[in-house]
Design the sequence.
């Protein structure tokens, strides 16, 4: 029966199994490139999780759960019972999805509710939702900036920012990472630009370092520029009440445009947004291509976003727990002799340098019940491979102690520490 079905499939779908010269050439080229990746030790394997996201997960065929230290689930909300209940309730009431884009028949009252909640949380005039923060970054620069404008981007900004800026026709400047002198020099070169837009990550995801937003805003005022910040690794958990890098620097309201995500701390599902001046948001609804040509976010995802913001707005306990866990882990790892990049943020990159070493180190950690991932080129620069540890509010002190002990054991075995 199965053989008969496969035979019918082959005859019904022209070209499905064809092996033309072009296809063979494609395969040869791709195989050569894949071989280069493997030879360089930068091959990225995907571990399959067979459980809910959380501080404990089941990976692959392992019988026992392992401690998860490589998730963006900063507040531990991905499997929070209130989040799950909100998604289930929305699924029952609103269905699985809208089967459409927002301006046709893809906007529900809960979409508007979440946009208002986001704007209120960030203390901005309005907000617009996208399928992801990558889409939010892909939309804004092309819409906002023209050949009469100039954009100034930190050299280590997220790939989505880099791709988004490529789409616009503004004059493009890349300043050295966190270097305010270099940024100002570029600003001075664009005295006649109509709009000047400084673009930065709030927190840089590979290194865990924090943009000097206070200094950036001062330079913006001095040179008549706007400030844009991507807060994907800050919203909901960074700063005293989780309002991100602005709050960390005590300058809430000084950044002009904020992009962020619902897919990390705020429920861990999907979705991104832009929040800022009402007129800008109105323009993005009219011209933002990822908004106009992508299905609206599914109701269960919207519901998880609403509930996540409610949780953060109603209590500061999870934010405090993340801060406690971060300090505990960082201090213990530095005391053990490891080089930990960044500072004061739940992203804790354990710097190893060699690509193969990072991969082997991660495998050794998994064998000891700690799930971490080795980061290597092109995700990070060559010879700057690392294990990026991320702390969550769901981690206990015991979890952190177990992870540190495993790091020390593997570190000594692989001669990373003495």
Sequence:
């Amino acid at each position: 029966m199965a053989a008969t079905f496969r035979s019918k499939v082959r005859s019904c779908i022209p070209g499905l199994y064809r092996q033309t010269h072009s296809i063979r050439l494609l395969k040869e080229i791709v195989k050569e490139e894949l071989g280069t990746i493997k030879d360089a030790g930068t091959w990225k394997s995907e571990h399959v999780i067979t459980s809910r996201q959380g501080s404990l997960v089941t990976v692959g065929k392992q019988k026992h759960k392992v401690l998860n230290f490589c998730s963006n689930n900063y507040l531990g909300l991905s499997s929070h019972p209130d989040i799950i209940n909100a998604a289930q309730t929305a699924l029952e009431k609103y269905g699985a999805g809208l089967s459409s884009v927002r301006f046709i028949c893809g906007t529900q009252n809960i979409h508007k509710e979440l946009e208002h909640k986001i704007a209120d949380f960030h203390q901005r005039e309005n907000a617009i939702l996208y399928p992801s923060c990558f889409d939010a970054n892909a939309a804004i620069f092309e819409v906002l900036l023209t050949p009469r404008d100039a954009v100034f981007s930190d050299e280590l900004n997220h790939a989505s920012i880099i791709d988004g800026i490529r789409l616009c026709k503004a004059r493009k400047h890349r300043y050295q990472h966190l270097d305010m002198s270099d940024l100002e020099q570029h600003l001075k070169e664009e005295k006649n630009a109509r709009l000047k837009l400084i673009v930065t990550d709030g927190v840089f995801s590979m290194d865990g370092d924090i943009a000097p937003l206070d200094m950036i805003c001062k330079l913006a005022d001095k040179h008549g520029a706007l400030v844009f910040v991507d807060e994907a690794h800050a919203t909901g958990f960074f700063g005293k009440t989780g309002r991100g890098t602005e709050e960390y620097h005590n300058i809430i309201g000084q950044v002009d445009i904020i992009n962020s995500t619902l897919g990390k701390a705020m429920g861990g599902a999907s979705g991104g947004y832009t929040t800022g001046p009402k007129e800008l948001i109105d323009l993005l609804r009219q011209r933002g291509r990822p908004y106009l040509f992508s299905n609206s976010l599914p109701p269960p995802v919207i519901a998880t976003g609403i509930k996540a913001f409610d949780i953060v707005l109603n209590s500061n306990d999870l934010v405090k727990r993340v801060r406690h866990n971060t300090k505990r882990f960082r201090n213990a790892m530095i005391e053990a002799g490891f080089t930990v990049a960044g500072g004061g943020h739940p992203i804790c990159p354990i710097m190893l340098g060699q690509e193969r070493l990072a991969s082997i180190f991660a495998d050794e950690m998994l064998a000891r019940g700690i799930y971490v991932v080795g980061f290597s080129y092109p995700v990070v620069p060559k010879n700057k491979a690392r294990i990026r540890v991320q702390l969550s509010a769901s981690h206990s002190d015991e979890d952190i102690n177990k992870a540190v002990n495993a790091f020390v054991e593997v570190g000594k075995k692989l001669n990373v520490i003495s």
